[in-house]
Known about the structure:
By secondary structure, this protein is an alpha+beta fold.
Amino acid sequence: MAATVITPHCAAALRAAIALGTAAWGAVPARAQELPPPAYQIAAAQSGVPSSVLYAVALQESGTRLRGRLVPWPWTLNVAGTPQRHATRVDACLALRRAMRDTPAERIDVGLGQVNAGYHAHRVQQPCALLDPYRNLGIAAEILHEQHRPGEDWLAAVGRYHRPAGGPPAARYRGAVQRHLARVLGNPQAMASLNPRRETTP
């Protein structure tokens, strides 16, 4: 994948992305809790999902390195297995429209949560709406909530978010998200906050 060059022309977009955590440059001390950015907290609360889980999913789905820090990038596409990072929402929308002319929508994932443009087409009026980072997070949170079953660990829902049928792909994905989650929560003991007895949004 070619590296994206973030130029001064992107400065306004980066400022607007502060609430999404994509412009937070400060270093996070080792083992310190990394509070999910405000946009994740809001989307998670609206769907009854732990904000730390939603943020960890976004890190796995669209995470990219900016100034040495892994952050979710809102204008990320995955077209038939090939990831793309675009500098602006406009660029990403143009690329998405081009991709949909040649690639089935079911093979295109979009945005922070890499929402599938085919299977979740009913959630938006048109595909480029998935590039609205707030809407994308809202949909990702809705999907996580739909995949969660009462009394089970949230990581099980995370696996089905990636692959509803489960199996080894879902298990590998759970493991990857769990590593991000451990970083976000700051220590292994904090994972207990996601057990079935405490399903409130952090």
